[in-house]
Each structure stands twice: as C-alpha cells, then as structure tokens.
Amino acid sequence: MNVKTKFSIIMANYNNGEYIGDAVNSILSQTHADWELLICDDASTDNSVSKISKFLNDPRIKLFRNKVNKGIIHSENSLIKQCRSKYIGILDSDDVLTSDAVSTMLDAHISNPDTAFIYSQYEFCDSNLKFTSKGSSRAVPLNSSTLVDDCAVAFRTFKKSAALEIGLLDYAMKYAEDKDFIYKLEELAPIVFVDKVLYKYRIQDESSSHGDNEARARMIMSYARLEAYKRRLNTPISNLSKTSVGIEVMYGIGVSLRKLNFAQFKIFSLALRDYDLNMVKNMGAFVRGIRGKMLWL
Predict the structure, then answer these.
(1) Would you tell me how many other CB atoms lie within 10 Å of the CB of residue 213?
(2) Could you tell me the domains of the chain?
(3) C or N terminus of the chain, fewer CB within 10 Å?
(4) With contact defined as beta carbons under 8 Å apart, do 97 and 200 qualify?
(5) Can you tell me which residues the record assigns to a coiled coil (predicted)?
C-alpha cells in the first residue's frame, strides 16, 4: 500500500543559499513529524544546491533541479503535482515557519473538511529573523472576500485536489499568481483563517520591484482582479464594486500604454465597454498608470 504523508511543504528556490538552511531547519523543527518537504532549485548560480544537499539524508526531503531558470510559477506547479499528501503549504526559501505550523494547519484542515484554502497570521522579521512587526492577515469580514478585502497572506495552505481543479498557478498572472490562486480557491470553496503567527517573513535589503517594474507588477494585479470580477458576476461570491473595478481597469490601461503592452491594453479597454465602466470618473488611476506610479486603493 502506498502510504501517503499527512502534510506536504513546497519550496521554490533561486539563489537563496544564504537563507535556505534556516527555512529547511524550520521544517525539521516541526512538532508534527509526518511531513514531506519538496524543494525545486530553479538553476541557482550560488551555493544553494550544496546547502540543500546537506539535508538530503532525511528521506522526507526531496530536491528537484531545473536545468535552466523557469520561474517560480513553473517550479511551484511542478512541486504541487509531485506532492503525496492531501494538504500542501508554501514556504519561501528565505522565510521560516514556527515549530507548530504544520500541526496547527493539519488540525485546521481536518476540522474544516469543506475548505480549499487555510491561511494564518504572520510576522515580519529582519535578515537575522529578529521580529520587526506583525503581519496584516486577518479573517475575511462577513459577506466579503479576499478580492474585496486583501487579508490572506501567509502561511498559505490548500488542498492538492483544489489546486489541480483550478488549474494550478496561472502563467498569465506572473507577478500576481499568488493572489489569483487565492481568488480562484475562494471561488471553489470556503476559506479559513487561523489567528496565530505560524510564518516569519524575512525582509531583505534588496528588492526586485522598483519603479516601472513595480507598476507593471501592479498592472498584472489589476488584470487578476478584473478576471476575478468577471468570474464572480451573477454568483453569490462577494465581488468588487463597479467603482473599484473601474479604477483597476483605468490603471491597467495607463500602465499598458506606458509599457506598450497592446495585448493587455486591449483586455482592459474591452472591459470598459463590456462592463459599462466610468472612464472619466477614474481618470486619476489612468494618470498614475501612464506615469508608472503605484496604485493605492
């Protein structure tokens, strides 16, 4: 008989050799020992693989390597498919879990069999994992959703069957794939919040998102929110107001013009027509987009 492990953790890694040891050790320190850790190294150029290899004598830890860099969406999707457990959690390779994270989330899933997605509270830490501030996760307000109230951050856990049903992470949503993933899981089944810090998010000095790149990423977020709005029309699931989606669309038009991304421009422009959105009222969002500024709602 194929004995399935009770909880899977997936970890995509690219050049986090300095910190990945902390991440793996936080899994080894779990109070619940019936887990598997699947790591995908995305063609790192640092010492990541040698750091990971030191842990491979534990049969619960498996390493998969991409010959060329394929990005986090490919890495996480491939890992989800490989998982042997019903429940999966995502840990970034520079972050850590608290020692009771797996046991707490496993209990939460067993107690809530109809849910597709369960998340927890988290905290921010400096590069040495020293606490800096509490995270912003919270329960979804009554009659609301994560689309309307962005409150689901980490520790992100979900059923493998639900992830497969929604088609895994969407390549078209690069830079907003995690939020798009949550929106779709929320549309599939109820979600649950565990009000306990289970995840420590490490803030590094360097960031890959600045200026135009950050605005482009926010444009994809607007696209993800627009697509969720379309899916939720004429359903009982809490949706964006026409004012909110109009702001997202006008911002997307601005950034797509700035970046000469005509495919995205067409999608946003058609939404103006198809959903009777107010262009003039939301001109401020367009101006921020065309200037490459961030959109704050």
Answers:
(1) 13
(2) 7-202 (3.90.550.10), 211-290 (no CATH)
(3) N
(4) yes
(5) none
